[in-house]
Design a protein that fits this description.
This protein is α+β, with helices and mostly antiparallel strands. It has twelve helices and 14 strands. Helix content is 38%, strand content 24%. The strands form four sheets. It has a five-stranded antiparallel β-sheet. A four-stranded antiparallel β-sheet has the order 11-12-13-14. A three-stranded parallel β-sheet has the order 1-3-2, with helices on one face. Helix 10 (227-233) packs antiparallel against helix 11 and helix 11 (240-253) packs antiparallel against helix 12 (264-294). The radius of gyration is 19 Å and the shape is globular. GO terms for molecular function: FAD binding; oxidoreductase activity.
Length: 296
Amino acid sequence: MSPFDYHRPDTVDEAVALLETCGGDGKVLAGGQSLLPVLALRLTRLGHLIDIGRVQSLQSIDIGDSGVVSVGAAVTHARVERSDALAAAAPAVVGAMPYIGHRAIRSRGTVCGSLAHADPSAELPAVALAVGAEMIVRGPTGQRTVDAADFFEGYLSSALAEDELLVGVRFPAWPPRAGWSVLEISRRHGDFALAGLVTTLVVDDAGLLRRPALSYFGIASTPVRVVEAEQLLEGNQPDSALFAEAAHVVSGALRPRADDHASSEYRAHVAGVLTRRGLAEATERATARTTQRAGV
């Protein structure tokens, strides 16, 4: 590991000022889940490491009266995974946690760190894209929000400027009659996904699908939604035939990357399989929630 200067700011303003001073030579450390292995392998070099671990304002988890969930940049995966309140308010987020590495990794890695790292094989960027999360970004000129659809720009590349800090993420209120699913295929538990899918949807009073989202990860250079399949599902009765048709659309629409771990054809096939399974699982959860509310 190459030498660097270590900084430990107490406030967000101090952290942003350091980023501005360091320019492109500074990196932010939250949990270190992704950054430290990269540094240890000498895959990147930096002159300054900015540790935001003791910035108290970044440690918060807030569930607003409207149901919107805000998670600060220093909140670990483990805190989210253990929260019963978040399991009810943001079930797709909590549902992704068991897939993220191993328990020791989740005790250090952070939600916002995973989002900022923008690894296309990671689960949380796909969750953020599926539910329409907003990234809260602070820089020298102030604060701005970036929709998940605009945040992930390429492989390990996001809309964050060199002098900006991701200070939090907002997940929208979980709607009534909604269901979710997080599925992935990997060689071993804890490995990066060869292909994965986050599914969210609503089953309305008439039993029809509404607001379906199919967000794939491990497929391309960013998480990606297949709008053609979502449009096919919208307003239709959920059944195995519809899910199979959606899977066919997905397999044809995606142009998966190929690498040493899996071919493009394999990833396209797996994406179709996950589509059928994810839609069935999410529909089952949505129906179960509806039944529970009705007291059946």
